[in-house]
Amino acid sequence: MTLAVELAGIRLKNPLIAASGTFGYGVECQDLMDLSLLGGIVSKGLYLEPRDGCPTPRIVETPSGLLNAIGLQGVGVRAFVRDVLPALSRWDTRVFVNVCGDSVEEYAEVARIVDAAPGVAGVEINISCPNVKKGGIAFGGDPHMTHEVVSAVRKATRLPVIPKLSPNVADIGAFARVCEQAGADAVSCINTVLALAIDVETRRPRLAFGTGGLSGPAIRPIAVRMAWQAAREVRIPVIGVGGIASAADALEFLIAGCRAVQIGTANFATASPTSTQ
Amino acid sequence: MRRGMPVNRVVRLLRREPLSGDYFRLAFEHPEVATQGRAGQFVMIKAGVSAEPPLRRPFSLLGLEPERGAFTLLLKTVGPGTRALAAMQEGEPASCLGPLGSWFQPPPSGREPLLIAGGYGIAPFLLFSRDLRARDVVPRAFYGGRTGADLQLLDAFGALGVPLVAATEDGSLGARGYVTLPLEAYLDSHPSVALYACGPDALLHAVARIAARRGLPAQVSLDPWMGCGIGTCLGCVVRIQHAGDPRPRYKCACTEGPVFDAATVAWPGESGSLAGGGLAAP
């Protein structure tokens, strides 16, 4: 029996992918697990230039969940291509690059740089980060902007293009359709759920940014529902993401119609997306 | 596996010792931590092997028992993760990654090491005291807490021959007030020392200010919220500015710390903070 799946014209040895923002650039984990066990990994979100990210505190645990406002701290796409991609080449897994931008042009430029780099299987478009003031959810919450960003990235690369959708919309199926029409090869559903935790002693938000994105088992039923809604609306594959911490959790998404799944928050407590809790 | 690399394991609880107040000493089996851990390093650990709670917690290494392949940690129950650890029975499993992070460097020769701890910040200093004693260096401990029940392991420091000055905010044990008061008094007559601090941020910041004012070397062990322990979540970053850096940069406390040269830490509220600091509207 094979666990291999075909996704946007590329073959994954299995449907397990490490989700963006939960696995660094992959190299941080290579001493702790055999990366070749994974169907794929998605890099931390990358802009053209390095980014500092949000002030601290940036994370807080909530019931069955993790609330974060990291703010896309990163080394920039050129440093990733120069320093990280060569180190990942010794592993037999698919590397997807999560591309970010403050503008449509920046998304396209990052995608062009990724396109020219060896060893990249596809581009995931970050139009759903809730923790940045420009880009992110500002694009993914507006169907016209979503169309513009996905079209621009589509023109900038021959690689498979996979927008990562936000759950913070009324009808995720409509956004999946917009992505399909703009030339996307698949969609990832979902990014984190916009949320707020308050310290009752100080009466202040527990994260320095204020609001954050909620992940972990707390959001899994939301994610399964939204991935299912998206899968009913489009012919392109849907990648399910949200609170997966066991094989049974992953099966929920596959039964809901997903082609593959991403493991996110669970990586923090296991250092390995293949370990079943 | 390279020596000193962190190893991910399901570990068993070997011993559970309730201490005073909300404190426990727990011993877990983990051969790599037991044989390769260093004073100041830490483990990420959570009770059980289920998805709850979602995150492991960081704990300084309290003691190493290489012959048993075990390490100990000092636990104070403060929330759901620490309460679940305190409720474990001997033989039950936990999810553990270690050894992690940087460690305390011995003092420049001729300088007396002063170990300044607040609350559960005492944890790494027992192991560090053993290491120093093995080098024929005798440290001196300054240990503060809110009340006497917060001060742990006093006998253990006594057994190592480490003089210890206690201070409590309510005066129930040792001097009344913050531990920095007896520390400053000692420094007035003992200028050739090196400072080491572990505890609440306010204490670490106070020790850093004292070190800067008196021109003393100081190492501090920071304890921010930590998600992964290996530099992937970027949740535990602290602002670090090395000599020559134009401004502070966010560094992971888990991989580049938790022990930092106090002079490189850009403390909250001091100049040179990163743009975007403070509360921002989403």
Q: What does this entry look like structurally?
A:
The complex is a heterodimer of chains A (277) and B (282). Helix content of chain A is 29%, strand content 21%. With 277 residues, chain A is of the alpha/beta class. In chain A, α4 (143-156) packs parallel to α5. Chain B has 2 domains: 7-100, Elongation Factor Tu (Ef-tu), domain 3, CATH 2.40.30.10; 112-264, 3-Layer(aba) Sandwich (Rossmann fold), CATH 3.40.50.80. Helices cover 20% and strands 31% of the residues of chain B. Chain B has helices at residues 31-36, 80-86, 123-134, 154-159, 180-189, 201-214, and strands at residues 7-18, 23-29, 42-47, 57-60, 63-65, 70-76, 93-100, 112-118, 140-145, 164-168, 175-176, 193-198, 218-221, 237-240, 249-252, 259-261. In chain B, the strands form 3 sheets. A 7-stranded antiparallel β-sheet of chain B has the order 4-3-7-1-2-6-5. The longest helix of chain B has 14 residues, at 201-214. The chains are: A alpha/beta (277), B alpha/beta (282). Chains A and B meet through β5, β6, β13 and α8 of A and loops of B.
Q: How is the quaternary structure best described?
A: heterodimer
**What shape does the CA trace of chain A take?**
globular
Kindly report the greatest chain-chain contact and the residue count on each side: A-B, 48 and 45 residues
CATH topology of chain A: TIM Barrel
Shape of chain B: globular
Strand content of chain B: 25-35%
Instruction: Provide the succession of SSEs of chain B.
Output: EEHEEEEHEEHEHEEHEHEEEE
Largest β-sheet summary of chain B: 7 strands, antiparallel
Which architecture of chain A does the CATH hierarchy give at level 2? Alpha-Beta Barrel
Tell me the total number of β-strands of chain B: 16
Give helix % range of chain A.
Answer: 25-40%
- Integer tally of domains of chain B: 2
Ends apart, CA distance between termini of chain A = 23 Å
CATH architecture of the largest domain in chain B: 3-Layer(aba) Sandwich
